[in-house]
Amino acid sequence: MTPLPPKVVCLGSLNMDLVIQVQRAPAEGETVEGDSIRYVPGGKGANQAVSCARQGARVSMMGRVGPDHHGEILCEALKQDGILVKGVSVDPDEPTGVAMVMVEEGGLNRIVVIAGANGKVSLDESQLVQELSDAQFLVMQFEVPMAQVLQAAKVASRLGCKVVLNPSPAKQLPEELWPLVDVMIVNETEARFLTGLSADTDPQVAAQAGQRLMAKGVTQVVVTLGALGAVATDDGGSTYHPAPPVQVVDTTAAGDTFLGVVTVGLACRQSLATSVNLGIRASTLCIQTLGAQPSIPTLAQTLQNSSVPSWISL
């Protein structure tokens, strides 16, 4: 009998992204002309769910949308990737979350998020047990209430389901949450917020940041460094994974793509280093396409991109 693909549950935000392309962002008090505007399904939670699904996992999404057309579109988009959405509730009073994404020439973005229904996510324990009882990993970020993140982590830990946390937007973690996190994936900004170390341009400093986060109880840590790649740290040490230079179109969802690939890699019993290497391959593809979910590659596309070098032990 063929074994089932690993199951991943994603608890997080669903947003409709309003993507505006500009030559450059306006200065204070300035008006600039935009090049284009698009509505694209997004939200960190939904993006991470799509990334996991396109890598071959069975995925369930848990979150909240509003009673509007945006919410319908977002749920339908998840279904198109085979993602179960029975855990996505509809808030009768709040609108679906919206993110305004301004993308400059060169791919840098500036994002403003209106939480809407994401801020009202509320889950009962029986619902969590039902979703997590046969899951290998629970994926979360901080675009839903912290109380729900902590509750879900406790249930997952009790059921033997590993927790992957992307602490974004950067916030201080409750002390009881740290030892419940099996894998933490942070970018340079989040690493600096949580550890005080500036790892932006130095993989050795990123490795130190990873060690500090592990000292708080996390089992495995990945610090992403944008164009420089990523540093993975576990009890076997740290490895640096450089990223190849590419033409950047839009960096939106690059981190979410990376997280999904790493999560599914670990769920398929690959090493952390191998999973990170694949994550860099996928995010390299992602940043060459405009938009959040449309830019997330499939497993086949990820494996075709073999230009990323192997890792370096630190």
UniProtKB/TrEMBL annotation:
Description of how activity is regulated: Activated by a monovalent cation that binds near, but not in, the active site. The most likely occupant of the site in vivo is potassium. Ion binding induces a conformational change that may alter substrate affinity.
Cofactor entry: Mg(2+)
Domain of life: Bacteria
Keywords: ATP-binding, Carbohydrate metabolism, Cytoplasm, Kinase, Magnesium, Metal-binding, Nucleotide-binding, Potassium, Transferase
Binding note for cofactor: Requires a divalent cation, most likely magnesium in vivo, as an electrophilic catalyst to aid phosphoryl group transfer. It is the chelate of the metal and the nucleotide that is the actual substrate.
InterPro entries, per the entry: Carboh/pur_kinase_PfkB_CS, PfkB_dom, Ribo/fructo_kinase, Ribokinase, Ribokinase-like
Family per similarity comment: Belongs to the carbohydrate kinase PfkB family. Ribokinase subfamily.
Free-text function comment from the UniProt entry: Catalyzes the phosphorylation of ribose at O-5 in a reaction requiring ATP and magnesium. The resulting D-ribose-5-phosphate can then be used either for sythesis of nucleotides, histidine, and tryptophan, or as a component of the pentose phosphate pathway.
Quaternary state and interactors: Homodimer.
Protein name listed in UniProt: Ribokinase
Organism the protein comes from: Rhodoferax ferrireducens
